[in-house]
Amino acid sequence: MRSLSTHDQSMREFPDLRLLVVPAIRAWFLGKSKIDVVELGPAYTTAVPEALSEMLSSYTAVDFSAPYLKKQLELLAQHPHLLARSRQIAVDTYDLQLPDSSCDLLVTSCHPPLVSASTDDKCLVIDKIHALLRTGGYLVVFPWYFAEQQMKVNKHLLQRFALRRIAYQQGVNSRLLLVLQKQ
To answer: Cα(first)–Cα(last) distance of the chain, in Å?
Structure first.
């Protein structure tokens, strides 16, 4: 019996990543190289760095949960080529201290500051993400429900970023994945 790779395991545990997020990211970044990636709220999945492994210059995982990041680090240890380019930061997104214009791609899925925070706090996180991305860099956010966000949040997001792609997951829990670009 074949053992599951960490990629296979994380895809089983995080099916939205397998079905929508990872294929969209891989397709969008195909042919690019040496990209610096920040993932907000990865929990312990290694799906994003594994999916982008041949394109990756650096990968930074930011999560409020140190135990999740420790588990992710254990999984990344099975891939020395990824581990050498990875770092984990246990901090609330609002307190994240990374240099401005330090990444090409920022990925976030089900990240509380964009899902359940107040309107003003969501706008603060959008500004933080905007500052972290290099000009021309991409924000991938999943899920995003325009109808469930306050108009102020949607307007703020679309003033900071150009919408480049929308992927849609059909079914009972229909969801949107947005690919946005910093201008």
So the answer is: 49
Q: What is the 3-state secondary structure (H, E, C) of 85-125?
A: CEEEEECCHHHCCCCCCCEEEEEEECCHHHHCCCHHHHHHH
Q: What tokens does 76 get?
A: 């990344």
pLDDT of residue 167: 80
Question: What does the DSSP 8-state code read for residue 134?
Answer: E
Backbone angles phi, psi at 43, to 5 degrees: 55, -125
Q: How far apart are CA 160 and CA 143, in angstroms?
A: 18
pTM: 0.86
One-letter amino acid at 34 equals K
Q: Are 22 and 12 in contact (CB under 8 A)?
A: no
Nearest 10 degrees: Cα torsion 93, 176, 36, 101: -60
Which pair of structure tokens corresponds to residue 130?
Answer: 């905007």
Distances (CA, A) of 182 to 5, 56, 88, 126, 161: 34, 19, 24, 11, 5
Q: Residue 2: pLDDT above 60?
A: no
Q: Which of these, 139, 40, 30, lies nearest to 89 by C-alpha position?
A: 40
